[in-house]
Amino acid sequence: SDIGSQKDRVVTEEEWLQKWEMGNIGFHKEQRHPLLQKHLDVLLNGRSGLRIFFPLCGKAVEMKWLADMGHNVVGVEVSEQALKEFFSEHSLPYCEEPVPEISGGKMFQSTSGNISLYCCSIYDLSSSIVGKFDGVWDRGALVAVNPSDRQRYASLMINLMEKNSSYLLVTVSYDPNKHKGPPFYVPESEIKSLFG
């Protein structure tokens, strides 16, 4: 597949942290994503009390929305600032604790217990640490992952999913020769080869 000059592009964790520090977070949306609202029934599939995973969650407003519906939300994000902003912007009290299995990893959990956000690299997670999920809302993760890491990312997502889980994925379509990313262009053929 032709992804132009993007296939070798690497964005480091430091660059992502810098985006948060500088407030260069055009990828963050203040409103719930219309595609999640439109396809929520696909994600939930008539079920309640689900465990829903937000990879590279930032401070996504949908996390509180789904938690308020009675679901358990788990997210992962490398920026501690983003996670703390999520809790403060929603006036949610939380506690912070280390994650023994992850060097330097922390978990921020709402005192209500239904939102758990891990501060670490997504590749430090495993089902033995976070369990498995009934649903995944991937609004900006696959398109943010370095192209060379996509297979590793997809394998992790598949390992974190329960048998009957739903995976909602948002990608962007554009000419990858005209924009270096992120967000990266992920052709449909590659999505099929990654996730089947």
How would you sum up this structure in a few lines?
The chain has 196 residues and is of the alpha/beta class.
SSE layout and pairing:
Layout: H1 13-22, H2 34-44, E1 51-54, H3 62-68, E2 72-77, H4 80-89, E3 94-98, E4 106-110, E5 115-119, H5 127-130, E6 133-138, H6 150-160, E7 161-169, H7 188-195
Parallel strand pairs: 1-2, 1-6, 2-5, 6-7
Antiparallel strand pairs: 3-4, 4-5
Structure overview:
The chain has 196 residues and is α/β, with parallel strands linked by helices. It has one domain: Vaccinia Virus protein VP39 (Rossmann fold, 3-Layer(aba) Sandwich), CATH 3.40.50. It is built from seven helices and seven strands. Strands 3-4-5-2-1-6-7 form a seven-stranded mixed β-sheet. Strand 3 and strand 4 form a beta hairpin. The two termini are 16 Å apart. It comes from Oxyruncus cristatus. Its main location: cytoplasm. It is an enzyme of class 2 (transferase). Its EC number is 2.1.1.67. GO terms for molecular function: thiopurine S-methyltransferase activity.
Shape field: globular
C-alpha-based Rg, rounded: 16 Å
First-last Cα distance: 16 Å
Which fold name corresponds to the CATH topology? Rossmann fold
Characterize the biggest β-sheet. 7 strands, mixed
CATH class: Alpha Beta
Low-confidence stretches: none
Q: Architecture, CATH level 2?
A: 3-Layer(aba) Sandwich
**Based on DSSP secondary structure assignment, what is the total number of beta strands?**
7
Determine the structural class based on helices, strands and strand pairing: alpha/beta
Question: How many distinct folded domains?
Answer: 1
Count, helices: 7
H/E element sequence: HHEHEHEEEHEHEH
How are the strands ordered across the major sheet? 3-4-5-2-1-6-7
**Strand coverage percent:** 15-25%
CATH homolog superfamily: Vaccinia Virus protein VP39
Average per-residue pLDDT, rounded, comes to: 94
Multimeric organization: single chain
Organism: Oxyruncus cristatus (sharpbill)
InterPro entries: SAM-dependent_MTases_sf (IPR029063), Thiopurine_S-MeTrfase (IPR025835), TPMT (IPR008854)
Binding site for S-adenosyl-L-methionine: 16-27, 56, 77, 121-122, 139
EC number: 2.1.1.67
